[in-house]
Design brief:
The complex is a heterodimer of chains A (113) and B (114). Chain A is mainly beta. Chain A contains no helices and eleven strands. Classes of the chains: A mainly beta (113), B mainly beta (114).
Chain lengths: 113, 114
């Protein structure tokens, strides 16, 4: 039982390159989220998926796209990376039928040069 | 939408003293208020939460209070220890009809000085 798994954990990109962050959960939760965390800015929501087949924009969606591939997987894509996207990215799932607790992955540290 | 303000942004206390972190929210429909602790380089993890029908909840050295009228809630840590040093996030969640709207505060960096 791994919970929420993110890959890769670390990535360095050059400006303009593309990449996809992968997130998979084995908790059977419907709702999944992508956050970015920057110093002094807290956790800012990029995109979320309330259930399989649906995705919605959060607070800071520009420059990102997402895919909810199935109930387990929710990926975040940077089509043309910019230095402003240097951040730590967290995927999370929501235990909607339980306490409402968010379960976070370990995070992915992305640096864009 | 919901707006969550969290204060202070940094807090230093001596080991053994108490620490209090306060959050205010704007949406009176928010009904669930969790607190997350994030140690350096780690993921945020839930430490305590409170629902809108409860005024106070305690778990050992940690307590949370909620004032729905004033729309604020607070985290209280007593007898602080060095391992309490971390960033703490409050959040306000509005849930209903299968949807969840979550908003986090910007975090408080707590340093416990031995």
């Amino acid at each position: 039982n791994a919970g929420v798994t993110q890959t890769p954990k670390f990535q360095v990109l050059k400006t303009g390159q593309s990449m996809t962050l992968q997130c998979a959960q084995d908790m059977n939760h419907n709702s999944m989220y992508w956050y970015r965390q920057d110093p002094g800015m807290g956790l800012r929501l990029i995109y979320y998926s309330a259930s399989e087949g649906t995705t919605d924009k959060g607070e800071v969606p520009n420059g990102y796209n997402v895919s909810r591939l199935n109930k387990r997987e929710f990926s975040l894509r940077l089509e043309s990376a910019a230095p402003s996207q240097t951040s730590v990215y967290f995927c999370a799932t929501l235990w909607a039928t339980g306490t409402g607790e968010l379960f976070f992955g370990e995070g992915s540290r992305l640096t864009v040069l | 939408g919901e707006n969550v303000e969290q204060h202070p942004s940094t807090l230093s206390v001596q080991e053994g003293d108490s620490a209090v972190i306060k959050c205010t929210y704007s949406d009176s429909a928010s009904n669930y208020f969790p607190w997350y602790k994030q140690e350096l380089g780690k993921r945020p993890q839930l430490i305590i939460d409170i629902r809108s029908n409860v005024g106070e909840k305690k778990d050992q050295r940690i307590a949370v209070t909620l004032n729905k009228t004033a729309k604020h809630f607070s985290l209280h840590i007593t007898e602080t220890q060095p391992e309490d040093s971390a960033v703490y996030f409050c959040a306000a969640i509005r849930s209903g009809a299968g949807s969840y709207q979550l908003t986090f505060g910007k975090g408080t960096k707590l340093s416990v000085i031995p």
